[in-house]
Specification:
Layout lengths: L3 E8 L4 E9 L10 H7 L2 E2 L4 E4 L5 E13 L2 E10 L6 E2 L1 H7 L1 E4 L4 E4 L7
Parallel strand pairs: 2-7
Antiparallel strand pairs: 1-2, 1-5, 3-5, 4-5, 5-6, 8-9
């Protein structure tokens, strides 16, 4: 399976904006957006900081933004990680799960399950 991308709409309190060919990374637990995007859309940005660890072991302090992402028209409330220096949007696994999406490895695209079970 190669790179999977999807068109999304991000929404904050002020407005929504469409982003095309956004990378879907099933190895990322959380979704990441640039802080500038969160601010321009009017998302609430938390004052508390978290710690993110990358697969190579690097750790970064992160802020979080609260907003909504729409994937294939499905609205998904989400808390996005804001990583300093990040210039691209990445959709992570928890966002896919919340929306009931899985990656079809044969087609390299997202499909929506009819139901989702959380244990």
């Amino acid at each position: 399976m190669g790179k999977v991308t999807v068109d999304i709409e991000l929404c904050g309190k002020r407005k929504c904006k469409v982003f095309r060919n956004v990378v879907v990374d099933t190895g990322a637990m959380v979704s990441v957006i640039p802080e500038s995007v969160a601010r321009s859309l009017g998302m609430d940005i938390t004052r508390s900081k978290g710690l993110a660890r990358f697969i190579d072991g690097r750790e970064f302090k992160v802020l979080f933004a609260i907003g909504e992402v729409r994937i294939k028209g499905v609205p998904i409330p989400e808390t996005f990680a804001l990583i300093k220096g990040c210039k691209e949007i990445v959709i992570g696994l928890t966002t896919l799960e919340k929306g009931g999406f899985i990656v079809d490895p044969e087609k390299g695209e997202l499909i929506r399950r009819e139901y989702s079970i959380r244990i």
